[in-house]
Amino acid sequence: MKQYSLEEIKAIYHKDLLELVFEAATVHRQHQDPQKIQICTLKSIKTGNCPEDCGYCSQSAHNDAQVESHKLVAVEEVIKEAKEAKEAGSSRFCMGAAWRGVRDNKDFENVLKMVEAVSNLGLEVCCTLGSLDEESASRLKKAGLHAYNHNLDTGPDYYNKVVTTRTYEDRLRTLKIVQDAGICLCSGGILGMGESEDDRIAMLYDFHRLATPPESIPINALIPVEGTKMENLEALPTDQLVRMTATTRIVIPTTRVRLSAGRSRLSYLEQGLCFLAGANSIFSGNRLLTTPNQSLTQDEEMMQVLGLIAEKVEK
Ligand code: SAM
Ligand code: DTB
Ligand code: SF4
Q: Which of 128, 172, 191 to mutate to test the pocket of ligand 1 (most atoms within 8 A of CB)?
Protein backbone atom coordinates (compact mmCIF):
# COMPACT_ATOMS: atom_id res chain seq x y z
CA MET A 1 0.00 0.00 0.00
CA LYS A 2 1.32 3.44 -0.91
CA GLN A 3 2.37 5.48 2.14
CA TYR A 4 1.26 9.11 2.26
CA SER A 5 2.54 11.87 4.51
CA LEU A 6 0.12 13.99 6.52
CA GLU A 7 0.71 16.87 4.09
CA GLU A 8 -0.04 14.66 1.08
CA ILE A 9 -3.30 13.49 2.64
CA LYS A 10 -4.28 17.11 3.29
CA ALA A 11 -3.57 17.96 -0.35
CA ILE A 12 -5.77 15.07 -1.52
CA TYR A 13 -8.59 16.09 0.85
CA HIS A 14 -8.57 19.68 -0.46
CA LYS A 15 -8.67 18.88 -4.19
CA ASP A 16 -11.58 20.26 -6.21
CA LEU A 17 -14.52 18.16 -5.04
CA LEU A 18 -15.44 16.48 -8.33
CA GLU A 19 -11.81 15.79 -9.18
CA LEU A 20 -11.44 14.18 -5.72
CA VAL A 21 -14.55 12.04 -6.22
CA PHE A 22 -13.36 10.96 -9.68
CA GLU A 23 -9.98 9.94 -8.28
CA ALA A 24 -11.57 8.03 -5.41
CA ALA A 25 -14.00 6.29 -7.78
CA THR A 26 -11.04 5.24 -9.93
CA VAL A 27 -9.12 3.81 -6.96
CA HIS A 28 -12.32 2.13 -5.78
CA ARG A 29 -12.71 0.32 -9.12
CA GLN A 30 -9.11 -0.89 -9.00
CA HIS A 31 -9.59 -2.59 -5.62
CA GLN A 32 -13.27 -3.41 -5.17
CA ASP A 33 -16.45 -4.24 -7.03
CA PRO A 34 -18.17 -0.82 -6.99
CA GLN A 35 -21.64 -2.34 -7.24
CA LYS A 36 -21.36 -4.33 -4.03
CA ILE A 37 -22.31 -2.92 -0.65
CA GLN A 38 -21.92 -4.75 2.63
CA ILE A 39 -24.98 -4.53 4.82
CA CYS A 40 -24.34 -4.64 8.54
CA THR A 41 -27.06 -4.87 11.19
CA LEU A 42 -26.51 -3.25 14.57
CA LYS A 43 -27.88 -4.50 17.85
CA SER A 44 -27.53 -2.71 21.17
CA ILE A 45 -27.11 -5.61 23.59
CA LYS A 46 -26.70 -3.38 26.66
CA THR A 47 -27.98 0.17 26.51
CA GLY A 48 -27.33 3.31 28.58
CA ASN A 49 -25.75 4.16 31.95
CA CYS A 50 -22.27 4.14 30.48
CA PRO A 51 -19.57 5.43 32.86
CA GLU A 52 -17.64 7.12 30.02
CA ASP A 53 -18.35 10.79 29.27
CA CYS A 54 -18.31 10.85 25.44
CA GLY A 55 -19.90 14.23 24.67
CA TYR A 56 -21.87 13.01 21.66
CA CYS A 57 -23.38 9.88 23.16
CA SER A 58 -26.97 9.30 24.24
CA GLN A 59 -25.78 6.43 26.44
CA SER A 60 -23.32 8.26 28.69
CA ALA A 61 -24.43 8.53 32.33
CA HIS A 62 -22.79 12.00 32.27
CA ASN A 63 -25.28 13.31 29.66
CA ASP A 64 -28.98 14.07 30.17
CA ALA A 65 -30.25 12.23 27.11
CA GLN A 66 -33.46 10.27 27.58
CA VAL A 67 -32.52 6.81 26.49
CA GLU A 68 -34.22 3.59 27.55
CA SER A 69 -31.50 1.78 29.47
CA HIS A 70 -31.43 -1.96 29.80
CA LYS A 71 -29.05 -4.64 31.07
CA LEU A 72 -27.56 -7.29 28.80
CA VAL A 73 -30.27 -8.83 26.60
CA ALA A 74 -30.85 -12.60 26.42
CA VAL A 75 -28.74 -14.72 24.07
CA GLU A 76 -31.94 -16.03 22.39
CA GLU A 77 -33.07 -12.49 21.48
CA VAL A 78 -29.76 -11.86 19.75
CA ILE A 79 -29.91 -15.12 17.80
CA LYS A 80 -33.46 -14.36 16.65
CA GLU A 81 -32.49 -10.88 15.42
CA ALA A 82 -29.34 -12.12 13.75
CA LYS A 83 -31.39 -14.68 11.80
CA GLU A 84 -33.81 -11.94 10.73
CA ALA A 85 -30.91 -9.73 9.72
CA LYS A 86 -29.45 -12.48 7.57
CA GLU A 87 -32.81 -13.04 5.89
CA ALA A 88 -33.05 -9.31 5.21
CA GLY A 89 -29.69 -9.39 3.39
CA SER A 90 -27.11 -8.51 6.04
CA SER A 91 -23.76 -10.27 5.94
CA ARG A 92 -22.48 -8.71 9.15
CA PHE A 93 -23.96 -8.37 12.61
CA CYS A 94 -22.50 -5.92 15.11
CA MET A 95 -23.33 -6.01 18.83
CA GLY A 96 -22.72 -2.92 20.95
CA ALA A 97 -22.61 -2.64 24.73
CA ALA A 98 -22.40 0.62 26.67
CA TRP A 99 -19.51 -0.51 28.83
CA ARG A 100 -16.22 1.17 29.70
CA GLY A 101 -14.69 -2.16 28.77
CA VAL A 102 -14.97 -5.88 29.02
CA ARG A 103 -14.71 -7.51 32.44
CA ASP A 104 -14.41 -11.16 33.25
CA ASN A 105 -17.96 -11.83 34.48
CA LYS A 106 -21.25 -13.58 33.66
CA ASP A 107 -22.22 -10.91 31.13
CA PHE A 108 -19.03 -11.48 29.18
CA GLU A 109 -19.66 -15.26 29.22
CA ASN A 110 -23.05 -14.52 27.64
CA VAL A 111 -21.49 -12.23 25.02
CA LEU A 112 -19.14 -15.08 24.09
CA LYS A 113 -22.20 -17.31 23.61
CA MET A 114 -23.78 -14.65 21.38
CA VAL A 115 -20.62 -14.38 19.30
CA GLU A 116 -20.43 -18.13 18.83
CA ALA A 117 -24.08 -18.47 17.89
CA VAL A 118 -24.08 -15.56 15.41
CA SER A 119 -20.86 -16.78 13.84
CA ASN A 120 -22.44 -20.24 13.41
CA LEU A 121 -25.22 -18.59 11.37
CA GLY A 122 -22.55 -17.73 8.81
CA LEU A 123 -22.53 -14.01 9.52
CA GLU A 124 -19.44 -11.91 10.10
CA VAL A 125 -19.70 -11.08 13.80
CA CYS A 126 -18.50 -7.76 15.14
CA CYS A 127 -18.61 -6.43 18.71
CA THR A 128 -18.08 -3.03 20.24
CA LEU A 129 -17.76 -3.37 24.00
CA GLY A 130 -15.27 -0.65 24.99
CA SER A 131 -11.68 -1.38 25.96
CA LEU A 132 -10.26 -4.91 25.88
CA ASP A 133 -7.34 -6.71 27.48
CA GLU A 134 -5.34 -9.46 25.78
CA GLU A 135 -7.18 -12.26 27.59
CA SER A 136 -10.69 -11.10 26.64
CA ALA A 137 -9.58 -10.42 23.06
CA SER A 138 -8.27 -13.96 22.79
CA ARG A 139 -11.52 -15.40 24.21
CA LEU A 140 -13.58 -13.37 21.73
CA LYS A 141 -11.40 -14.59 18.87
CA LYS A 142 -11.82 -18.21 19.99
CA ALA A 143 -15.60 -17.75 20.16
CA GLY A 144 -15.57 -16.76 16.47
CA LEU A 145 -15.39 -12.97 16.54
CA HIS A 146 -14.54 -11.60 13.10
CA ALA A 147 -14.10 -7.90 13.87
CA TYR A 148 -14.01 -5.51 16.79
CA ASN A 149 -15.24 -1.93 16.49
CA HIS A 150 -13.37 0.66 18.52
CA ASN A 151 -13.34 4.16 17.06
CA LEU A 152 -10.68 6.83 17.42
CA ASP A 153 -13.61 9.18 16.75
CA THR A 154 -11.45 12.26 16.08
CA GLY A 155 -7.84 13.42 15.82
CA PRO A 156 -5.47 13.40 18.84
CA ASP A 157 -5.57 17.19 19.37
CA TYR A 158 -9.37 17.34 19.66
CA TYR A 159 -9.90 14.08 21.54
CA ASN A 160 -10.01 15.53 25.06
CA LYS A 161 -12.65 18.08 24.00
CA VAL A 162 -14.95 15.12 23.34
CA VAL A 163 -14.12 12.62 26.09
CA THR A 164 -12.21 13.07 29.34
CA THR A 165 -12.63 9.65 30.97
CA ARG A 166 -10.09 8.03 28.63
CA THR A 167 -7.34 9.15 26.28
CA TYR A 168 -6.53 8.78 22.61
CA GLU A 169 -3.58 6.60 23.66
CA ASP A 170 -5.98 4.31 25.58
CA ARG A 171 -7.93 3.86 22.35
CA LEU A 172 -4.77 3.13 20.34
CA ARG A 173 -3.79 0.52 22.95
CA THR A 174 -7.08 -1.36 22.44
CA LEU A 175 -6.67 -1.18 18.65
CA LYS A 176 -3.31 -2.93 19.04
CA ILE A 177 -4.75 -5.59 21.38
CA VAL A 178 -7.50 -6.32 18.82
CA GLN A 179 -5.05 -6.71 15.95
CA ASP A 180 -2.53 -8.72 17.98
CA ALA A 181 -5.32 -11.20 18.80
CA GLY A 182 -5.87 -11.73 15.06
CA ILE A 183 -9.26 -10.00 15.07
CA CYS A 184 -10.10 -7.62 12.18
CA LEU A 185 -10.12 -4.03 13.28
CA CYS A 186 -13.10 -1.78 12.60
CA SER A 187 -12.24 1.77 13.58
CA GLY A 188 -13.51 5.11 12.38
CA GLY A 189 -14.74 8.45 13.55
CA ILE A 190 -17.45 11.06 13.88
CA LEU A 191 -17.50 14.24 11.81
CA GLY A 192 -19.25 17.40 12.94
CA MET A 193 -18.42 17.58 16.66
CA GLY A 194 -16.83 21.04 16.33
CA GLU A 195 -13.45 19.64 15.23
CA SER A 196 -11.49 21.11 12.32
CA GLU A 197 -10.96 19.39 9.00
CA ASP A 198 -7.29 19.03 10.05
CA ASP A 199 -8.40 17.02 13.10
CA ARG A 200 -10.25 14.59 10.83
CA ILE A 201 -7.28 14.28 8.52
CA ALA A 202 -4.98 13.63 11.51
CA MET A 203 -7.27 10.75 12.54
CA LEU A 204 -7.18 9.32 9.01
CA TYR A 205 -3.40 9.64 8.97
CA ASP A 206 -3.22 7.60 12.19
CA PHE A 207 -5.34 4.84 10.60
CA HIS A 208 -3.22 4.95 7.45
CA ARG A 209 0.05 4.52 9.32
CA LEU A 210 -1.01 1.54 11.45
CA ALA A 211 1.07 -1.51 10.48
CA THR A 212 -2.20 -3.00 9.20
CA PRO A 213 -4.87 -0.36 8.54
CA PRO A 214 -8.44 -1.08 9.70
CA GLU A 215 -10.40 -3.70 7.77
CA SER A 216 -13.34 -1.32 8.01
CA ILE A 217 -13.73 2.36 8.75
CA PRO A 218 -17.12 3.65 9.85
CA ILE A 219 -17.61 7.31 9.01
CA ASN A 220 -20.31 8.78 11.25
CA ALA A 221 -21.83 12.24 10.88
CA LEU A 222 -22.83 13.51 14.32
CA ILE A 223 -26.45 12.88 15.25
CA PRO A 224 -27.01 15.75 17.70
CA VAL A 225 -28.85 14.03 20.55
CA GLU A 226 -30.98 16.14 22.90
CA GLY A 227 -29.50 16.22 26.40
CA THR A 228 -25.89 15.92 25.21
CA LYS A 229 -23.49 18.86 25.09
CA MET A 230 -23.50 18.56 21.29
CA GLU A 231 -27.29 18.87 20.93
CA ASN A 232 -27.14 22.29 19.26
CA LEU A 233 -24.32 21.68 16.80
CA GLU A 234 -25.09 22.35 13.16
CA ALA A 235 -25.45 19.50 10.72
CA LEU A 236 -22.27 18.51 8.90
CA PRO A 237 -22.17 19.91 5.35
CA THR A 238 -22.52 16.90 3.04
CA ASP A 239 -19.58 17.90 0.85
CA GLN A 240 -17.32 17.41 3.90
CA LEU A 241 -18.67 13.89 4.37
CA VAL A 242 -18.01 13.16 0.70
CA ARG A 243 -14.46 14.56 0.97
CA MET A 244 -13.67 12.41 3.99
CA THR A 245 -15.11 9.31 2.30
CA ALA A 246 -13.14 9.91 -0.89
CA THR A 247 -9.88 10.65 0.91
CA THR A 248 -10.25 7.52 3.05
CA ARG A 249 -10.83 5.41 -0.07
CA ILE A 250 -7.75 6.86 -1.80
CA VAL A 251 -5.31 6.46 1.09
CA ILE A 252 -6.60 3.06 2.33
CA PRO A 253 -7.87 1.45 -0.91
CA THR A 254 -8.57 -2.01 0.53
CA THR A 255 -10.65 -1.01 3.56
CA ARG A 256 -14.42 -1.12 3.81
CA VAL A 257 -15.66 2.43 4.18
CA ARG A 258 -18.95 2.33 6.07
CA LEU A 259 -21.39 5.20 5.65
CA SER A 260 -22.67 5.15 9.21
CA ALA A 261 -24.60 7.45 11.59
CA GLY A 262 -26.22 10.51 10.05
CA ARG A 263 -27.04 8.76 6.78
CA SER A 264 -30.81 9.05 7.15
CA ARG A 265 -30.84 12.81 6.68
CA LEU A 266 -29.14 12.49 3.28
CA SER A 267 -31.05 12.05 0.03
CA TYR A 268 -30.49 8.87 -1.99
CA LEU A 269 -28.37 10.89 -4.40
CA GLU A 270 -26.22 12.38 -1.64
CA GLN A 271 -25.63 8.87 -0.32
CA GLY A 272 -24.98 7.87 -3.94
CA LEU A 273 -22.20 10.44 -4.13
CA CYS A 274 -20.63 8.84 -1.04
CA PHE A 275 -20.82 5.39 -2.71
CA LEU A 276 -19.28 6.84 -5.86
CA ALA A 277 -16.52 8.29 -3.66
CA GLY A 278 -15.77 4.80 -2.33
CA ALA A 279 -18.16 4.01 0.52
CA ASN A 280 -19.10 0.33 0.29
CA SER A 281 -20.99 -0.54 3.43
CA ILE A 282 -23.95 0.69 5.46
CA PHE A 283 -25.58 -0.03 8.78
CA SER A 284 -29.10 -1.17 8.04
CA GLY A 285 -32.16 -1.59 10.20
CA ASN A 286 -34.74 0.85 11.47
CA ARG A 287 -32.44 1.72 14.40
CA LEU A 288 -28.74 2.25 14.83
CA LEU A 289 -28.03 1.73 18.56
CA THR A 290 -30.42 4.26 20.11
CA THR A 291 -31.36 6.55 17.22
CA PRO A 292 -33.50 6.03 14.09
CA ASN A 293 -31.89 4.97 10.83
CA GLN A 294 -33.07 5.01 7.20
CA SER A 295 -35.68 2.22 7.03
CA LEU A 296 -35.06 -1.18 5.44
CA THR A 297 -37.65 -0.43 2.76
CA GLN A 298 -35.97 2.85 1.91
CA ASP A 299 -32.56 1.12 1.79
CA GLU A 300 -33.95 -1.38 -0.72
CA GLU A 301 -35.42 1.45 -2.80
CA MET A 302 -32.18 3.43 -2.65
CA MET A 303 -30.08 0.46 -3.71
CA GLN A 304 -32.43 -0.15 -6.61
CA VAL A 305 -32.24 3.51 -7.70
CA LEU A 306 -28.44 3.52 -7.46
CA GLY A 307 -27.94 0.04 -8.97
CA LEU A 308 -26.21 -1.35 -5.89
CA ILE A 309 -26.34 -4.94 -4.71
CA ALA A 310 -25.88 -6.44 -1.25
CA GLU A 311 -22.69 -8.42 -0.79
CA LYS A 312 -23.54 -12.08 -0.11
CA VAL A 313 -22.49 -13.91 3.04
CA GLU A 314 -19.29 -15.67 2.03
CA LYS A 315 -18.57 -17.67 5.18
N1 SAM B 1 -19.06 1.84 23.91
C2 SAM B 1 -18.31 1.47 22.78
C3 SAM B 1 -17.21 2.45 22.47
O4 SAM B 1 -17.36 3.62 22.73
O5 SAM B 1 -16.21 2.03 21.89
C6 SAM B 1 -19.15 1.26 21.56
C7 SAM B 1 -20.44 1.93 21.32
S8 SAM B 1 -20.31 3.55 20.66
C9 SAM B 1 -21.99 4.00 20.70
C10 SAM B 1 -19.84 3.33 18.98
C11 SAM B 1 -19.60 4.56 18.15
O12 SAM B 1 -20.85 5.12 17.74
C13 SAM B 1 -18.89 5.72 18.79
O14 SAM B 1 -17.51 5.52 18.84
C15 SAM B 1 -19.26 6.84 17.84
O16 SAM B 1 -18.33 6.90 16.77
C17 SAM B 1 -20.62 6.42 17.31
N18 SAM B 1 -21.67 7.31 17.84
C19 SAM B 1 -22.22 7.25 19.07
N20 SAM B 1 -23.13 8.25 19.24
C21 SAM B 1 -23.14 8.96 18.08
C22 SAM B 1 -23.86 10.10 17.64
N23 SAM B 1 -24.71 10.74 18.42
N24 SAM B 1 -23.64 10.55 16.38
C25 SAM B 1 -22.75 9.91 15.58
N26 SAM B 1 -22.04 8.83 15.95
C27 SAM B 1 -22.23 8.35 17.18
C1 DTB C 1 -20.01 3.12 14.53
O2 DTB C 1 -18.97 3.74 14.22
N3 DTB C 1 -21.24 3.61 14.36
C4 DTB C 1 -22.22 2.69 14.89
C5 DTB C 1 -21.36 1.46 15.27
N6 DTB C 1 -20.03 1.92 15.06
C7 DTB C 1 -21.52 0.80 16.57
C8 DTB C 1 -23.03 3.28 15.99
C9 DTB C 1 -23.72 4.56 15.61
C10 DTB C 1 -24.49 5.02 16.77
C11 DTB C 1 -25.28 6.27 16.47
C12 DTB C 1 -25.98 6.79 17.67
C13 DTB C 1 -26.97 5.87 18.29
O14 DTB C 1 -27.80 5.25 17.60
O15 DTB C 1 -26.95 5.78 19.53
FE1 SF4 D 1 -20.16 4.71 26.47
FE2 SF4 D 1 -19.43 4.08 23.97
FE3 SF4 D 1 -21.34 5.95 24.44
FE4 SF4 D 1 -18.81 6.48 25.02
S5 SF4 D 1 -19.64 6.07 22.98
S6 SF4 D 1 -20.60 6.91 26.35
S7 SF4 D 1 -18.07 4.51 25.69
S8 SF4 D 1 -21.47 3.78 24.89
A: 128
Instruction: Tell me what pLDDT residue 312 has.
Output: 84
Amino acid at position 89, single letter: G
Nearest residue to 163 (alpha-carbon basis) of 129, 126, 198, 189: 189
Q: What is the DSSP letter of 193?
A: S
Q: Could you tell me the CA-to-CA distances from 153 to 206, 209, 214 in Å, in that order?
A: 11, 16, 13
- 184 classed as catalytic: no
State the pLDDT at residue 315: 54
> Looking at residue 314, what is its pLDDT?
60
- What 8-state DSSP symbol labels residue 50? B
CB 125 within 8 A of CB 104: no
Q: Is 94 in the active site?
A: yes
Answer for the pair 80, 60: CB distance below 8 angstroms, yes or no: no
pLDDT score recorded for residue 313? 74
User: Which of helix, strand or coil describes residue 151?
Assistant: coil
Distance from C-alpha of 129 to C-alpha of 214, rounded to nearest angstrom:
17
Task: Identify the segments of the chain with pLDDT beneath 70.
Answer: 314-315
Q: Model-level pTM?
A: 0.97
Query: For 61-94, what is the HEC assignment?
Result: CCCCCCCCCECCCCHHHHHHHHHHHHHCCCCEEE
Nearest atom in ligand 1 to the alpha carbon of residue 230 is: 23
Angle between helices 268-276 and 296-306 (to 10 degrees): 60
- Residue 65's pLDDT is 87
For residue 42, the Cα-to-chain-centroid distance in whole angstroms is 10
